[in-house]
Each structure stands twice: as structure tokens, then as C-alpha cells.
Amino acid sequence: MAVHDDCKLKFLDLKAKRKFRFIVFKIDENIQQVMVERVGGHDETYNNFLAAIPANECRYAVYDFDFTTDENCQKSKIFFIAWSPDSSRIRSKMLYASSRDRFKRELDGIQVELQATDPSEMSIDIIKARAI
Questions:
Q1: What is the mean pLDDT of residues 22-36?
Q2: Alpha-carbon distance 69 to 94, whole Å?
Q3: What does the domain layout of the chain look like in residue ranges?
Q4: Cα(89)–Cα(96) distance, integer angstroms
Q5: Full-prediction pTM beyond 0.85?
């Protein structure tokens, strides 16, 4: 599975320059390549991120989650989310599952990985719990 250069460039902008809050990636099955589908500005919320992910189609996403620790320190963690809803096509699920590790290796700096098949598995409470 090929990875479009824009995927790596946008991820570097998210990680190093903090230009984006999230990036949603999709696999173009016709050309067998991972592409950027949508980027969310740094001022967008987690609800904006959830709205950007289609309910019935697989996607990869990265989300830059800011939080405050119990010691009152500001921190940030970059999540990699593999979204594979039960209602998506079997062929699509297989394609995303078989490409996930290779694609994730292209994105140097992922701190937390999350696999979700239902929206409740990537709720803000789950994100907070995994960040700490």
C-alpha cells in the first residue's frame, strides 16, 4: 500500500508546528494509496473530529489531544485511531487492517494507538483515560 507524500507532510505540520488538531486519512482503493481526506484546524474540537469520520466507512486518523495532568501540567499526546465500523464493507475492513501497521510506521511520533469499531470506543472519556 502506497502512502501519498501529503500524509507525511501534514502529519509533520500537526506534530512539529501544531498547525492542525486532527487529520483523517482514507485509502483510495482504485490506486491503492493512503490519502489525506480532511484536516482540522487547531481550534477545532473533538466533536468536530468525530463529525469528520464517516459512520459506515473505515478510516485512519490522528488527533492531537491537549490535557492537564493531576500535577497541573499542560501536556499533549498524538493518538492514532483506526476506525473500522461493523457496518463497513468486509473488503474495506480487510484492506485497512492489513495496511495499518505499515501506514503507522510512516507517521513517526504516534504516542497512543486506538482501534475502534463503535463510536463509544473513541469517546472523549476513552481518549482522556488513555492519555493519562
A1: 97
A2: 37
A3: 2-131
A4: 11
A5: yes
- The separation between the first and the last C-alpha atoms of the chain, rounded to the nearest angstrom, is 33
Distance CA 2, CA 115 (A): 21
Q: In which band, very low, low, confident or very high, does the pLDDT at 41 lie, cut at 50, 70 and 90?
A: very high
Q: How many Cβ atoms from other residues are within 10 Å of residue 64's Cβ? A: 20
Nearest Cα to 59, choosing from 124, 127, 122? 122
CATH architecture of structural domain 2-131: 3-Layer(aba) Sandwich (3.40)
pLDDT at 132: 84
C-alpha cell at 54: 464517516
Question: Residue 130 has what pLDDT?
Answer: 94
Burial of 61 (C-beta count, 10 Å sphere; 0-12/13-18/19+): buried
